[in-house]
Specification:
CATH topology of one domain: Rubrerythrin, domain 2
Largest sheet: 3 strands, antiparallel
Structural class: mainly beta
Number of strands: 5
Helix content: under 10%
Strand order of the largest sheet: 2-1-3
CATH class of one domain: Mainly Beta
Number of helices: 0
Shape: elongated
Distance between the termini: 26 Å
Order of helices and strands: EEEEE
Radius of gyration: 16 Å
Strand content: 25-35%
Length: 77
C-alpha cells in the first residue's frame, strides 16, 4: 500500500495518506476542507559501494543543511 502526499488547496497544509485500493483522503486533517490535491513526490534511495560506503542518496540530499529526515515534507520546506 503506497503512501501519497497531498496538499489542501484552502489552507496549503501538506500531509501524507496511506492509500488502500482506490481510497483517497476525504478532507484536510488541518482544516477539514474537502479540496485536496495529490502532489508529485520522489522516492528515496541510497546506493552503497562495495565497501558499504554511501555513494548516492536522494532523500536528505536536499538543500536543507543538516537534515537527516528521509521525507522532505516532514520539515515543511
Amino acid at each position: 500500500m503506497p503512501i501519497y502526499e497531498y496538499q489542501c488547496t484552502d489552507c496549503k497544509h501538506k500531509f501524507e495518506y496511506l492509500v488502500m485500493g482506490d481510497s483517497c483522503p476525504d478532507k484536510c486533517p488541518a482544516c477539514s476542507s474537502i479540496s485536496v490535491n495529490k502532489q508529485m513526490s520522489t522516492c528515496g534511495f541510497t546506493s552503497k559501494g562495495s565497501s558499504g560506503e554511501t555513494i548516492s542518496s536522494s532523500a536528505g540530499a536536499s538543500s536543507c543543511s543538516g537534515c537527516s529526515s528521509t521525507n522532505c515534507s516532514s520539515c515543511g520546506s
